[in-house]
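step 4 of 6: structure.
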Amino acid sequence: MDDLIRLSVAELGRRMAAGELTSEELTRACLARIEALNPTLNVFLHVDAEGALAAARAVDARRAAGEELGPLAGVPIGVKDNYCTTDMPTTCGSRMLQGWVPPYDATVVKRLREAGLVIVGKTNMDEFAMGSSTETSFYGPTRNPWDTDRIPGGSGGGSAAAVASFMVPLAVGSDTGGSIRQPGAVTGTVGVKPTYGGVSRYGLVAMASSLDQPGPCTRSTEDAALLQAVIGGYDFHDSASLDVPVPDLVAAAQADDLSGVRIGVVTEFQGEGYEPGVLERFAEAVELLRAAGAEIFEVSCPAFTYALPAYYLIQPAELSSNLARFDGMRYGLRAGDDGTHSAEQVMNLSREEGFGREAKRRIIIGTYALSAGYYDAYYGSAQKVRTLIQADFTKAFETVDVLISPTTPTVAFRIGERMSDPMSMYLADLCTIPSNMAGNASASFPCGLSDGLPVGLQVMAPPMADERLYRVGGVLERALESAWGHPLLNELPTIDTQAVTA
Amino acid sequence: MGLTAADVARLGALARIQLSEQECAELAPELDVILESIRRVSEVATPDVPMATHAITMTNVFRDDVVRDSMTAEQALSGAPDDEDGRFRVPQILGEE
């Protein structure tokens, strides 16, 4: 049973197709693992064991009846708790939506169901996806399976930790400033932010609409390609959805060399503030890419250094507008409705009680940035920085095919360490934010350990060239695994279920 | 020039969030640190730089104006804190007088 949960998705699919394994057996193995580890790691906010087993049995029946099914049919998956699901609550890690069951499925969820994937539950996240550590969840922090005293990254720490701890082979997340890639880096998993518009946002509870992007969290590059192939592609319901053909991502993930691929190392994302262990693993990975046939260049993108401050104007501004819908009238928490308060007072009280501290902090910043007299100076200036970042990317992609950098400046930090210092927390997303600002495709791949903790390498490709991420990621993964003798996650220490009592 | 607790309270009122005096006092210096870092963007956001309005340049998206299925009233009301006669019930909106 223990071996089963460690198999790659491609192998699981093959065994199910060959009749050697049923989805029900696999789902039961995942549910048992979740039951054993969730009290320690706090990865899943909701587990629907009955629903998952019913879905698994339905896939098994279709397969037994001779139906031709997709490669992921019957594979269990975890879904970040900001995707609307009709059969499970969607809380966004907030008290505001405690117990709320949406009346419709997100497009990503609908496509997972149609492809026969088995949704086992909803994964923990920073409240309304704002945070870099999964500590701002109303339902308590998620713990990193590599070291339960440390954060699993954020905001999608639950999805990344679910995959890293072998609770499920696959998960989906959402990436607004790095919320798939940064958790991927600090948990030793693969996290992909597809091109903006490449995967539909319909039914993903909006945080910062011009930046939010759904994507895969997996244990391997090929698994991520298989998952993006299922959830990606045009959707009528999302006005920003790209109506372009999806490239063959799985074939790209299986490519065996990087001959003729030009790779640019971003000069701005190294040096001061980066842990030596992170830089060492990164430099070793660059040498492996070179050995695989890639040409390596240094590329300067000066506007990237302004991405972080500009992001912290655009994101709160859009967030303060999106979160205005939580007014206690049509859904969510309502406080103070005792007949003595007006509707406006009830709104104020509901929002005071429903939102956590980080949500309030960002709503206040956003309200300030959008208020009369400050709009041009703040929001307008930030949108100009976005133009400069896009121009840096465009210029870079004239000479190189992809850009690379460390995904994060440091390995996973300790729980509580940065909670009282918002700027140090925000630095965790330093390298990931430019891709959200420009809308291009970007991903994080594991590239080794520093002091026993995972380090990630980020690959950035032009918009609609997602297949380049998979080609570089796949070749790097095989080179590293051949050097180590096994996948990085084989080094995951045994998780001490007695260590955490809270 | 830093934000004061009174500024934070005023922003809270604009954002429809009731903030306690303690929350306003604690948030003011934290917001100051963030705003100070954010002021850096004006260094490069010169008048000659156009604003990016979207991550990917797109033309406006139109669709045919056709009737299609929508949510039922029951579905729309399913998450409401309170409802009555097939409608959302909300607290008093008009003035007391």
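step 5 of 6: annotate
 - Chain A has a mean pLDDT of 96.
 - Chain A touches chain B through 74 residues (CB under 8 Å).
step 6 of 6: archive
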